[in-house]
Design goal:
Number of domains: 1
Distance between the termini: 12 Å
Strand content: under 5%
Low-confidence stretches: none
Shape: globular
Strand order of the largest sheet: 1-2
Radius of gyration: 16 Å
Order of helices and strands: HHHHHHEEH
Oligomer: single chain
Helix content: 55-70%
Mean pLDDT: 84
Length: 169
């Protein structure tokens, strides 16, 4: 298995965990943690493909242009997503990019010690210590946005794993 494929396989596993957590109405922080990992590994799979791989936790914001290029070139992804044109896909990509970037920022190494993150308690600027389990992460990482991002990643990863299986076999 190539490193690129391994990232996509692991991203699929993380995404399936996020979807199961979403279905069980688990705490937002648990869903966001699994979704953040799926976003990060999807981006790292593309970064590996395009030779821009770096071990960072904000891989999506640095790798999204590669994802956008790959998807805009693939009409089958647009069809599976029920989108008529490249412009429709572009609109969806902009929305997904906002949500994925918001989710990515919840990684503790990106958020820092004083900002909301989906993994560890933090102390905000007012000196109040907060727990991810009791925090509302806001509209950019809310349920509707998460579901849209989950559907998008599902299509992307299905494409990548299908294409790579065809190439391997």
């Amino acid at each position: 298995m190539t490193l690129e494929r391994a990232f996509f396989v692991q991203a699929r596993s993380d995404l399936e965990a996020a979807i199961r957590l979403e279905a069980s109405r688990c705490d937002n922080c648990q869903i966001l943690h699994a979704l953040q990992m799926a976003v990060e590994k999807t981006a790292k799979g593309y970064a590996q493909r395009f030779g821009t791989f770096r071990t960072v936790h904000n891989a999506f914001s640095t790798g999204f242009p590669r994802i956008r290029t790959a998807l805009l070139a693939d009409a089958s992804v647009r069809r599976r997503m029920g989108l008529v044109s490249r412009q429709d896909l572009g609109r969806v990509l902009r929305s997904v990019e906002r949500t994925a970037t918001a989710v990515e920022s919840l990684n503790p190494s990106v958020a820092g010690r004083a900002n909301a993150n989906c993994e560890y308690p933090w102390t905000d600027a007012a000196g109040v210590t907060r727990s991810p389990a009791r925090h509302r992460f806001g509209k950019p990482a809310g349920r509707v946005a998460r579901l849209k991002l989950e559907r998008f990643l599902d299509h992307v990863l299905a494409r990548e794993l299908r294409v790579q299986s065809l190439l391997a076999g």
